């Protein structure tokens, strides 16, 4: 049955009648496709009538010019069909920039190959790529718009642009590109409730989203800057994000219930950001630029949301369900299982898998060499200066340093570390090696141009070190699966492997508390990063990534040696 959706002077109008949008945000890319229906039904049972979803450009264009809207949980049209099957409305938030604590805010890192890159602007190379993505996405999503009989009521133009820039031509151009590609539903913007953010980020004729709209004065401000369109709270926060090295963020429920009570009593529309966070599988976690300049996000995106990382109801969920008047049965909890200790042995080492080197005068960034994530080994021979103060300008993001194969120490961008002392070597021509790990690209604010690796130069006692070899390790899943056993190498940077047998499958949590820092794969699926600084010690593994019979765990640990092998296990939670 065809329906209409329009923007009134103050209300959202569905089939000509006011509609109070009560929305739960879910991100399909952070949820195994097998659980999409479950999470949507959880949101509905909590009392929501709408699902909002970010779409991450870089998740669908992993290789420049090649789009994937079909494989695994990239079939975004299928997600919205499931939303409609549950009798719910939908809101889509496709960027091109989204933030979302996602790597590079959803922008594709291949853009960083351009040394003059300017994002979120009319810079030609950025806009050419953005418009190509928007055209590709529009083809996929058009059948799911309410004007085509689908569930999608509105589309967001950019995201929190007023927190970043003031190019009104850029914002207008994005809206015009969507329209030219057949997007004929209303648009909205989302910005913090301050005068400068709303002035720079809102668009005439587009609904105004507030991040968040927790006070009546926020709504009055929005109406004064962009009158004649509905205002809603596009991000009402039931939880918050967590960075490595922090305690888990656990906002209380009392303030949330007060805020939601205000929204309900005033019949204001709002969207929970997020109702369910899911997981930053692989290398998708982003980073902020606070603290000493870099704050990488943990792998879990649980967010202390009402629906936890595994998709189960929390006390916060039950309190909100009561307040929202949610009806119907809450979907049954997702089963989970424990896995006994899995013996791990050294399989090989980064040092035994060095690919052909790339030779450069000074170090170059990952992106300039065609790599967006993973590791790189930078190697040079020390000529002239052979000891003293080593300075990396600048390190992005974590490094282990070696001289003639001997481990010297670590450098952590998160702590503002970029120097360490190199001792005098007995070798007449010492070999310096710097193993650099890329963590998440910054996803918010002015430091978003965040290239990985060594971004400028390395000096020793003030002398610029020249003539480098770079060995790239993208850490692709297929590469991990194909690794063969090699003789052991005593240096840190070991890949460990273990196998275990299952008679049945269920979700589990891989406990990495016996390991230091690195990445975990189960049956070739990248669960994400671990780090012994916490707070996260267990990585979520969905049942769909396990199988009856023999299963394999592979662990890359940047700080352990072959002698440090330790068992891992799966826990129920």
How many E strands?
Answer: 32
Task: For the record, give the distance between the C-alpha atoms at the N and C termini, rounded to a whole number.
Answer: 43 Å
**Which regions contain 5 or more consecutive residues with pLDDT less than 50?**
none
How many distinct folded domains? 3
CATH secondary-structure class of the largest domain: Alpha Beta
Multimer state: single chain
Q: Mind summarizing the main beta sheet?
A: 8 strands, parallel, barrel
What is the fold named in CATH at topology level of the largest domain? TIM Barrel
Which geometry do the CA atoms define? Answer: globular
Tell me the radius of gyration: 25 Å
Overview of this structure, please?
The chain has about 575 residues and is α+β, with helices and mostly antiparallel strands. It has three domains: about 5-325, TIM Barrel; about 340-345 and about 485-570, Jelly Rolls, CATH 2.60.120; about 355-475, Galactose-binding domain-like (Jelly Rolls, Sandwich), CATH 2.60.120. It is about 20% helix and about 30% strand. Strands 4-5-6-7-8-9-10-11 form an eight-stranded parallel beta barrel, surrounded by five helices. The protein has a six-stranded antiparallel β-sheet with strand order 16-25-17-22-19-20, with no helix packed on it. It has a five-stranded antiparallel β-sheet with strand order 15-26-31-28-29, with no helix packed on it. Strand 6 (about 90-95), helix 4 (about 125-140) and strand 7 form a beta-alpha-beta unit. The mean pLDDT is about 95.
């Amino acid at each position: 049955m065809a329906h209409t959706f329009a923007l009134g002077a103050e209300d959202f109008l569905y089939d000509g009648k006011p509609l109070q949008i009560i929305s739960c945000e879910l991100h399909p890319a952070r949820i195994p496709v097998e659980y999409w229906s479950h999470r949507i039904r959880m949101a509905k049972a909590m009392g929501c009538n709408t699902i909002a979803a970010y779409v991450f450009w870089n998740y669908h264009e992993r290789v420049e010019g090649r789009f994937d809207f079909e494989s695994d949980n990239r079939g975004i049209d299928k997600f919205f069909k499931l939303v409609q099957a549950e009798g719910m409305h939908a809101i889509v938030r496709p960027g091109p920039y989204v933030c979302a604590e996602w790597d590079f805010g959803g922008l594709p890192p291949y853009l960083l190959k351009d040394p003059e890159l300017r994002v979120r602007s009319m810079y030609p190379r950025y806009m050419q790529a953005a418009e190509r993505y928007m055209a590709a996405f529009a083809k996929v999503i058009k059948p799911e718009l309410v004007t085509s009989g689908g569930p999608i009521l509105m589309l967001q133009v950019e995201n929190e642009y007023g927190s970043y820039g003031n190019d009104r031509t850029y914002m207008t151009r994005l809206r015009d590109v969507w329209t030219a590609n057949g997007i004929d539903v209303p648009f909205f913007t989302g910005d913090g409730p301050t005068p400068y953010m709303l002035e720079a980020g809102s668009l005439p004729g587009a609904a105004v989203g507030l991040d968040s709209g927790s006070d009546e004065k926020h709504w009055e401000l929005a109406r004064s800057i962009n009158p004649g369109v509905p205002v809603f709270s596009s991000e009402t926060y039931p939880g918050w994000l967590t960075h490595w090295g922090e305690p888990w963020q656990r906002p209380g429920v009392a303030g949330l219930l007060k805020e939601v009570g205000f929204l309900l009593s005033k019949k204001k529309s709002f969207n929970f950001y997020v109702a369910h966070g899911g997981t930053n599988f692989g290398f998708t976690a982003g980073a902020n630029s606070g603290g000493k300049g870099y704050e990488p996000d943990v792998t879990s995106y649980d967010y202390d949301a009402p629906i936890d990382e595994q998709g189960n109801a929390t006390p916060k969920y039950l309190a909100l369900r009561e307040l929202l008047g949610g009806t119907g049965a809450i979907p049954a909890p997702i089963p989970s299982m424990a896995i006994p200790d899995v013996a791990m042995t050294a399989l090989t080492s980064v040092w035994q898998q060095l690919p052909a080197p790339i030779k450069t005068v000074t170090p170059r960034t990952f992106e300039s060499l065609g790599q967006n994530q993973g590791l790189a080994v930078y190697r040079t021979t020390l000529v002239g200066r052979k000891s003293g103060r080593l300075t990396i300008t600048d390190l992005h993001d974590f490094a282990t340093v070696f001289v003639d194969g001997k481990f010297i120490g670590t450098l952590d961008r998160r702590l503002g570390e970029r120097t360490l002392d190199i001792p005098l070597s007995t070798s007449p021509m010492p070999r310096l090696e710097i193993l650099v790990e890329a963590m998440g690209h910054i996803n918010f604010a002015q430091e978003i141009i965040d290239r990985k690796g060594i971004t400028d130069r390395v000096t020793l006692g003030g002398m610029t070190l020249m003539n480098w070899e770079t060995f790239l390790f993208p850490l692709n899943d297929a590469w991990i699966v194909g690794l063969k056993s090699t003789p052991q190498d005593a240096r840190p940077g070991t890949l460990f492997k273990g196998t275990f047998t299952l008679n049945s499958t269920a979700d589990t949590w891989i406990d990495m508390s016996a390991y230091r820092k690195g990445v975990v794969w189960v049956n070739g699926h990248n669960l994400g990063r671990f780090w012994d600084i916490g707070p996260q010690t267990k990585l979520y593994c969905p049942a769909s990534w396990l199988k009856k019979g023999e299963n394999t765990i592979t662990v890359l640990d940047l700080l352990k040696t072959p002698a440090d092998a330790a068992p891992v296990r799966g826990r129920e939670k």
